[in-house]
Amino acid sequence: MFEIDELVIAFIISLVATWILTPQVKKLAVLIGAMDVPDHRKIHTVVTPRLGGLAIYLGVIAGFIYLQPTFTYFWPIMIGTFVIIITGILDDIFQLKPVYKLAGQVIASGILIYSGLLIEKITIPIIGIVPLESFSILITFLWIIGITNAINLIDGLDGLASGVTTIALTSIAVMAFVDVRVAVFMYCIVLIGSNFGFLYHNFHPAKIYMGDTGSMFLGYSVAVISILGLFKNVTLFSFIIPIIVLAVPIFDTLFAIVRRAFKGENIMMPDKFHIHYQLLAAGFSHRMTVLIIYAFSTVFGVLAILFSNATLSASLIITLIVLVLLHIFAEIVGAVNGKKPVLRMLRKTLNKVNK
Length: 355
Description:
It comes from Aquibacillus salsiterrae. Its main location: membrane. This protein is mainly α. The protein has 14 helices and four strands. It has helices at residues 4-32, 53-67, 74-94, 98-115, 136-154, 160-178, 182-202, 211-229, 241-245, 247-262, 275-281, 286-308, 312-332, 341-354; strands at residues 35-36, 48-49, 121-124, 128-131.
């Protein structure tokens, strides 16, 4: 059990360590050629160092060195994150083919599954706890791989992936604090601290990008934390809570897969129809686009917190709100129709506020 003052110190250590190390990682990125070169698919127009995720990772390690955690699965998680970091570094330098990146993710996921960290059950109202039994390995594998890539795909604007994961982690931390899940709360705290330290250098205009080193590390970490802290919950609709927390990256990824499938395109190939690209195309500034997505993420995070301890009737109301928000989200990314009236209304409203 950790005291609150110890967790505050760990948060500060992670934040300061990442803040100090990021400029050094930037120099390393330039030295080894881990640079993000602009092309037709990217927003930025200047060659920018990536590899910033290494600084986030080192900040987390610094926080853990201070706390010296001993919770179950700690070392399998650390070994898995190390595999992810190595995969990310190689990709940031050499631009690996998707199959090689997936191989690294599969190895990291396999390490956790072999250690016994699984999504073993879900809770459904009236029915109660439903054991997943033989399906637990497959579902755990798909969850880790899916969330890792969802965060990776949303990393398209300055500060976007760091901010969205920070909001998700904050929501999970609140629920972990209420449920007295010390390991989950501790893990969230050091990750949030590292993200804040990196955001100082990464918010628009970014001096460095996190690269796949960072987006895959954050995605993998959020997936693991959600298994530890959300799927282990026995509240109503326990399996829906992590989906609400991570609604923005999850549904942005799902809509992208459906969109590409309908167009007959390779679902693994990137495009410019993610939510951040659509908001930019609608005329919003870089910063405003990021802040709008932050707002979406915050609303979903708050709804997840409310959902975690809601009654059945309250859960149904929150579910309805979530579905309405997802419809708006789908419309913005063009999954509903091409007219996008909500997006036009949002732009007009913000223009009036700015005036």
